[in-house]
Design brief:
alpha+beta; 3-stranded antiparallel sheet; 3 strands; rod-shaped
Length: about 110
């Protein structure tokens, strides 16, 4: 049972002091990279870029050419969970088609 005494109830006198500071950091970002090999076709790389990374055809061609000419190409910048998921999807798609295409991520 709760006593009926007024002194046992919390009181509000209209003046509260709240010194609560909330610091929110932006999530770390990671760039997803495709790596060149001598077996994966250019058409398949473009297909991966369009399907997994939702790149338009022209941008997918540009990234594919960077992969071909420079040995690697950046597909996009994502939070950690999304970057890992995209890398895993690239590897699964390449494996299902018999290509050794590799992808990785690195912190920006």
């Amino acid at each position: 049972m709760v006593p009926d005494d007024e002194n046992t109830l919390p009181r509000y006198d209209g003046d509260t002091e709240t010194d609560t500071f909330v610091y929110l950091d932006e999530p770390a970002m990671f760039r997803v990279i495709l790596h060149n090999d001598h077996y994966t076709t250019m058409d398949f790389v473009v297909e991966v870029l369009m399907e997994i990374f939702q790149k338009p055809a022209a941008e997918a061609m540009k990234i594919m050419m960077n992969v071909h000419r420079h040995g690697h190409g950046v597909c996009g910048v994502y939070t950690y969970d999304i970057a890992v998921t995209k890398v895993n999807r690239v590897h699964a798609m390449a494996k299902s088609r018999g290509y050794p295409l590799k992808s990785s991520y690195e912190r920006v």
